[in-house]
Write a structure and sequence with these properties.
The chain is mainly beta and about 210 residues long. Helices cover about 10% and strands about 45% of the residues. The protein contains 3 helices and 15 strands. The chain has a 6-stranded antiparallel beta barrel. A 6-stranded antiparallel barrel has the order 8-11-12-15-14-13. Strands 9-10 form a two-stranded antiparallel sheet. The radius of gyration is 17 Å and the shape is globular. The model has no long low-confidence stretch (mean pLDDT about 90).
């Protein structure tokens, strides 16, 4: 597996709302998305794009050392699970990410790349934070499969993850380790304060792969 975040950020990208007026446009970060190998399509969590049209959305890639906003053509959300697919102008070159149709369960090691909110405010100039997306790596093991409602989590086809990645990572690809096989899409996390436990949740790719692929 590649460990160079400079390469990974070519196909695991920040997604946001485009706010424009007569003078300028701004990018309002909403979450993470990823492109599948050879497809002009991106996957993310449905709540990342909720309430916005394709024309109001965009994603960032790096060109000549600077973030550049890219167009999204169409948005479609799953009727039951917290997952969305976005049609792009063309494939993101070099993506090795492949949707995995296989059953996955407890103890499976996974890795994940995303853009957590807590890493976006590291740069301070003249006492003011200058937010910028920063790609972060997370790893852990699947705690269990969940096929029932979980409070504050959308859907019932879930992997419960041993490591919570943080706000902003919604839509990140959960990868079977080692490799680039996408087994889930990160959507949420929960914190049990009494027990001191934080866990994450991902939509199981095997349960939505037919919808993802059409």
């Amino acid at each position: 597996m590649a460990t160079d975040s400079g390469k990974v950020r070519d196909w695991v990208v920040p997604i946001g709302a485009i706010r424009a007026d007569n003078e300028h446009a701004t990018f309002e970060f909403r979450g993470t998305g990823f492109a599948l190998e050879g497809e002009a399509r991106m996957i993310t969590a449905a709540h990342v794009v909720h309430g916005l049209t394709a024309q109001e959305l965009g994603f960032l890639t790096v060109r000549e050392g600077a973030w550049t906003v890219n167009e999204i053509l169409h948005v479609q959300t799953h009727p039951e699970e917290d997952i969305a697919k976005l049609d792009l102008v063309g494939p993101l070159a070099g993506s090795p990410l492949v949707a995995n149709p296989d059953w996955q369960g407890s103890a499976m090691p996974y890795t994940m790349w995303g853009y957590p909110m807590d890493a976006q405010y590291d740069i301070v100039v003249d006492g003011l934070a200058h937010p910028r997306p920063d790609l972060v790596f997370t790893a852990g093991h699947v705690r269990r499969r969940v096929s029932h409602p979980v409070e504050e989590v959308t859907g019932q086809r879930l992997l419960e993850l041993g490591t919570a990645a943080g706000r902003g990572c919604s839509g990140s690809p959960v990868l079977r380790d080692p490799g680039w096989q996408v087994v889930g899409v990160y959507i949420s996390e929960r914190h049990n304060e009494a027990e001191g436990i934080r866990v994450g949740y991902a939509v199981r790719m095997a349960d939505v792969i037919e919808w993802v692929s059409t």
